[in-house]
Amino acid sequence: MVKEQDGNGHLLANGHAKVNAALEKIEAEIVEEENIFLFIPNIIGYTRVVLAIASLYYMPLHPRTCSGLYSISCILDAADGLAARRYNQSTTFGAVLDMVTDRCTTSCLLVNLASAFPRWAIVFQGLISLDLASHYIHMYATLAMGASGQSHKKVEASRSYILHLYYTNRTVLFLFCALNELFFIALYLLSFSSPLLSPSLLVTANTGPLSTQPGSPAHPKPSTLFANQWSAGALEMARANKMDSTIPWILAGISFPVMFGKQIINVIQLVKASKWLGEGDLAARRKAGITAGKKRA
């Protein structure tokens, strides 16, 4: 073997060998290292986010397009779980992405409903608060009190049989989540079709509420009535009677009991997680020697 020498006459063969070995090791690590952000379930999760954003763009005035995009985003919620199990690609990042996407999309839809039904805004605001609070406290309690790396979906039956059944039975979890979203989608569609729930803001002295149904008496264009086409009145007029209300009423009636049950589960989750954190606080106080009625000097 020919050995190279530097200006001082030192042999460089061993140095070259060490450099080559180090480079080969780095290349092997790069090849072997997995990029969890490109796992199939996470790519499905990114697709859900894109579809959800697109549905929000169409939400003010295009109920069919919005509902279609929003529904596909929700259906993919089940698909990413199937892919994670199929390809053994379950990750903490994927689980958090899934939960955050669910909370954000549902909250955005409820914000729209609060705008469409202002008299019921406080109800939708309460549902948003309950959903976020129960899941945040449950997640925090799992991280603080559970075993290292424990999933928020792992709830012992001894702590709560209802939550244990809800999180461990995939059929129950899917039905509750799907029908909960279906109810809110049905309400969204009713904001375009039901005079009972969403009466027109435009009222005349003689003819009553104006309608955009074909055959109705001619009425001024929104542009001549409202300086801003995105004002509450202009949006109400644009939404009025854009579709038939029969199917949305049926969907709302079918899904309402499950939606109501989902809110009860949120309350149970909030209470159980709060008690779990309370148990941890009491244990920490006992460990520190702090007891009821005893004050530090």
From TrEMBL:
Alphabetical GO biological process terms: phosphatidylinositol biosynthetic process
Question: Topology with regard to the membrane?
Answer: Multi-pass membrane protein
PROSITE patterns assigned to the protein according to its UniProt record, in alphabetical order: CDP_ALCOHOL_P_TRANSF
Q: Name one GO molecular function term.
A: CDP-diacylglycerol-inositol 3-phosphatidyltransferase activity
Keyword field contains Ribonucleoprotein: no
Q: Which cellular component appears as one GO term in the record?
A: membrane
- Assigned keywords, A-Z: Lipid metabolism, Membrane, Phospholipid metabolism, Transferase, Transmembrane, Transmembrane helix
Q: Where are the transmembrane segments?
A: 36-59, 172-192, 246-265
Localization (cell): Membrane
Q: Which PANTHER family match?
A: CDP-DIACYLGLYCEROL--INOSITOL 3-PHOSPHATIDYLTRANSFERASE, PHOSPHATIDYLINOSITOL SYNTHASE
Q: Which family does it belong to?
A: Belongs to the CDP-alcohol phosphatidyltransferase class-I family.
* The name this protein goes by in its record: CDP-diacylglycerol-inositol 3-phosphatidyltransferase
